[in-house]
Design brief:
The structure is a single chain. Helix content is 38%, strand content 8%. The chain is built from twelve helices and four strands, in the order H-H-H-H-H-H-H-H-H-H-H-E-E-H-E-E. It has a two-stranded antiparallel sheet with strand order 1-2. It has a two-stranded antiparallel sheet with strand order 3-4. 10% of the residues are buried. GO terms for molecular function: hydrolase activity, hydrolyzing N-glycosyl compounds.
Length: 280
């Protein structure tokens, strides 16, 4: 959430901070009797701090939800996650290769994905865990979870030291499921990216039935009883991976098609060269 001095929010035509805007949304929704859908990305610290100051207002607008402590975003600040009414589930099902970002960079916009991956990788080199993004996010963790480095290298091979890691990185689009999930019933049907878990069935526990009354459940486990014990038989991710990847690429490219509305147009300097959008 931007602070009060963020120049993107402090200007004559749009003089509101993130907190100002969220307060306005909440107050307007309360007046009209509407509920809000909050798409929360990364940790919950900002929204939790907002909740502390606006608890009564928030409780009017948002139903009580359940926290999954093992979900990645919740683990950053479990106290904030526990005290906020949010269910956040991180799903990794679709991989987008870095080539799409190189293609987008040809428009003149910065290849931010490459810069971010390099920053995370170099950060993982710190000998002192306290200086890393997360204590457990060392170089080996990055190589095994964010790259396909070990597909063609052994454990004894020298590790990449810098920019060469870009050729092996996998793009983690962990917010995509949440973003598409709140896009509306018509969009979900047209995109065909999610297989929503069916309404309650006979084998559902009461806890699961209560969950389904409040949420769309994407992905589930199939279990069976063996020797009196519950055993995981298979997992259904609930995501049509190819459709998810195609949709995300289309959204990324579509955002740049509209870029001339957001910034100036430039050419490469050659006679008759076409104008290209560039976002400032």
């Amino acid at each position: 959430m931007a602070d009060e001095n963020d120049p993107r929010l402090r200007n004559e035509s749009f003089p509101l901070t993130g907190n100002d805007l969220l307060t306005k949304f909440c107050e307007d929704a309360a007046k009209t009797g509407q509920k809000l859908t909050l798409l929360l990305i990364s940790s919950l610290e900002d929204i939790y701090n907002f909740l502390i100051s606006n608890k009564l207002l928030i409780k009017k607008l948002i139903s009580n939800l359940e926290v999954l402590p093992e979900a990645n975003n919740n683990r950053y600040d479990i106290e904030a996650a526990t005290n906020f009414y949010a269910l956040i589930v991180v799903a990794v099902a679709a991989t987008i290769e870095p080539e799409i970002f190189a293609e987008l960079a040809k428009t003149g916009n910065e290849n931010i994905q490459k810069a971010q991956d390099l920053s995370f990788y170099r950060n993982a080199f710190h000998e002192d865990p306290a200086k890393r993004f997360r204590l457990d996010r060392d170089r080996e963790y990055f190589l095994r979870t964010r790259t396909n480095w070990f597909d063609n290298h052994s454990d004894t091979d020298p590790r990449p030291k810098g920019v060469e890691i870009s050729a092996f990185t996998k793009v983690v689009v962990y917010n995509a499921l949440a973003a598409i999930g709140v896009s509306g019933e018509d969009s979900l049907k047209a995109l065909n990216v999610l297989n929503i878990q069916p309404d309650s069935i006979a084998s559902d526990s009461e806890q699961v039935r209560a969950l389904k009354r409040r949420h769309k459940v994407v992905g589930y486990e199939i279990k069976r009883i063996v020797d009196g014990k519950e055993v995981l038989e298979s997992e259904v991710p609930g995501i049509n991976v190819e459709q998810m990847v195609n949709s995300l690429k289309a959204f990324l490219k579509g955002s740049l098609i509209s870029a001339p509305l957001l910034g100036s147009k430039e050419t490469d300097g050659s006679p008759g060269a076409p104008e290209r959008p560039r976002i400032r």
